[in-house]
């Protein structure tokens, strides 16, 4: 039994996990990493803008933000990728978009719609008395937002934002359908060359698990930072 296991492992290392295939999987992992980081960061900015627009008293901003959120939350991510990568270049005034940037733009818009609702809920969870107290202290609207509302909203939103970011790591696999050589497409290429799909797909499952756990550790660190007790003034 032990000898059979050794033979099987040696076969994997010689036939599947060669230096060439490991390089392909590494490049796919790096692409997945940057795709998630860029789209997550841009989505967070879009989400904050959309959330503020949704809470605005100006009805045009409220309608635009609401339409954006409802469209990207209510349609499949795969369809959105097709619209951006295949649909937009079919218009006479739009140049073809490279696959990586088309995926980044789509994932940013998709993530931003979910981030927007999380951020809006975080602001709505702040007691109304906080804003009233800020006005009593003489803070203007910007100071109230910057020093009173935003820190509390961040504290409320971090857990849900973190969960959505972890989901974004897994959602990035759909970028493979528009030829972005992220981790899943790299694994498909390796599997088609080696005809050994089981070890290849199991290995990338563990890579996704590692990425998700690292992101979860980062989120928990941020949570602990915002949950720390305030130091008393001396």
Explain how this protein is built.
The chain is mainly α. The chain is 80% helix and 0% strand. The chain is built from 9 helices and no strands. The radius of gyration is 23 Å and the shape is flat. The relative contact order is 0.14.
Which structural traits does this protein have?
flat, about 230 residues, about 80% helix
Order of helices and strands: HHHHHHHHH
Shape type: flat
Please count the beta strands (DSSP E, at least 2 residues each). 0
Helix content: over 70%
The overall average pLDDT, rounded, is 87
Structural class: mainly alpha
- Radius of gyration, CA atoms, in whole angstroms: 23 Å
Query: How many strands, which pairing sense, and closed or not: the largest β-sheet?
Result: none
Contiguous helical run count: 9
N-to-C terminal Cα separation, in Å?
Answer: 69 Å
Q: Any low-confidence stretches, pLDDT <50, length ≥5?
A: none
How much strand content do the residues show?
A: under 5%
């Amino acid at each position: 039994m032990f000898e059979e296991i050794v033979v099987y492992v040696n076969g994997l290392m010689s036939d599947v996990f060669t230096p060439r295939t490991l390089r392909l999987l590494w490049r796919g992992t790096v692409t997945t990493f940057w795709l998630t980081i860029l789209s997550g960061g841009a989505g967070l900015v879009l989400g904050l803008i959309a959330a503020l627009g949704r809470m605005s008293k100006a009805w045009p901003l409220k309608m635009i933000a609401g339409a954006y959120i409802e469209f990207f939350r209510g349609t499949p991510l795969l369809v959105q990728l097709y619209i951006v990568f295949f649909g937009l270049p079919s218009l006479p005034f739009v140049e073809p978009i490279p696959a990586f940037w088309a995926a980044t733009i789509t994932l940013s818009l998709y993530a931003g719609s979910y981030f927007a609702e999380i951020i809006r809920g975080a602001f709505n969870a702040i007691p109304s008395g906080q804003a009233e107290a800020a006005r009593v202290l003489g803070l203007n609207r910007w100071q109230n937002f910057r020093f009173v509302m935003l820190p509390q909203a961040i504290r409320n939103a971090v857990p849900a934002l973190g969960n959505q970011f972890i989901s974004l790591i897994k959602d990035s696999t759909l970028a493979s359908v528009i030829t972005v050589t992220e981790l899943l497409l790299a694994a498909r290429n390796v599997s088609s060359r080696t005809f050994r799909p089981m070890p290849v797909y199991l290995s990338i499952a563990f890579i996704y698990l590692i990425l998700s756990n690292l992101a979860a550790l980062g989120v928990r660190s941020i949570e602990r930072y915002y949950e720390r007790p305030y130091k008393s003034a001396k």
